[in-house]
Design goal:
Elements (H helix, E strand, L loop, with lengths): L4 H15 L10 H11 L4 H14 L3 H5 L3 H7 L6 H18 L14 H9 L6 H11 L9 H9 L9 H11 L5 H14 L18 H8 L1
Helix pairs in contact: 1-11, 2-8, 5-6, 7-8, 9-11
The protein binds iron/sulfur cluster.
């Protein structure tokens, strides 16, 4: 059975007590959060930030980045990994935004637009999936949604927020249905930290987990 809102509230309280304040990352402009999230795919935060800093140093304006030579951009973002995939993706995203926005890369309108409209716009950009869209919504725009990355997905499955057959796209819908709006971003932050430190891929350290008595998977593993 899925956790109730009161159980989820208790989870967030315990995660904050164990892992520190569950604050979201610093707020960035939508276009910046979007490109940063593309750079974060399949790498860690340190390498993502190195790639982002190198990219911004070489292309200080978004218009300059949109006009970048693909090979030069690949070199600039190489520290973040998968540069041959991410560079053309970034250029395709910026080209599509410019096409839709009449040549502009300004996404200010998202700050006052309906959540569903912003999400639909973002996921229809080339190479942008539900997690990237949710990161822009949650972190740049302060909207109540749960970005489901690999850690959140694993932890949420083990805690039975998600059934076994649920894919990542559907997981975003289910998490927003289950988690009260005021808890969504903090739950995301807490699950990422739990997933990195305790509920790791492979065998989780359930004995050290603050959610053990609330977790069906932990009950099986610890009892085993
Ligand atoms: S009890 Fe174990 S499986 Fe459950 S959330 Fe904690 S670490 Fe993960």
């Amino acid at each position: 059975m899925s956790p109730s809102p009161s159980t989820i509230r208790e989870m967030v309280r315990r995660l904050a007590r164990r892992l520190g304040p569950l604050d979201p990352p610093p707020r960035r402009e939508p276009i910046e959060e979007l490109i940063l999230t593309v750079l974060s795919q399949n790498t860690n935060d340190v390498n993502r930030d190195r790639a982002f800093a190198a990219m911004r140093e070489r292309y200080p304006t978004w218009e300059g980045l949109a006009a970048a030579d693909e090979r030069a951009l690949v070199e600039a973002i190489r520290p973040g990994g998968l540069a041959n995939t991410k560079a053309p993706r970034i250029l395709a995203i910026l080209a599509e935004i410019a096409r839709r926005e009449g040549g502009s890369l300004d996404l200010e309108w998202m700050k006052t637009a309906r959540l569903d409209r912003v999400r639909a716009y973002l996921v229809s950009l080339p190479g942008v999936g539900p997690k990237t869209a949710a990161c822009v919504l949650a972190f740049s725009l302060g909207r109540p949604t749960v970005p489901v990355d690999t850690h959140v997905f694993r932890v949420a499955r083990r805690l039975r927020f998600l059934d076994d057959g649920v894919d990542v796209a559907r997981a975003h819908v289910v998490m927003d249905e289950l988690v009260p709006a005021s808890l969504r971003v903090r739950l995301h932050v807490g699950f990422i930290r739990l997933g990195r430190r305790i509920c790791r891929a492979g065998r989780p350290d359930c004995d050290a987990c603050p959610l053990l008595d609330l977790c069906p998977t932990g009950a099986v593993l610890v009892g085993a």
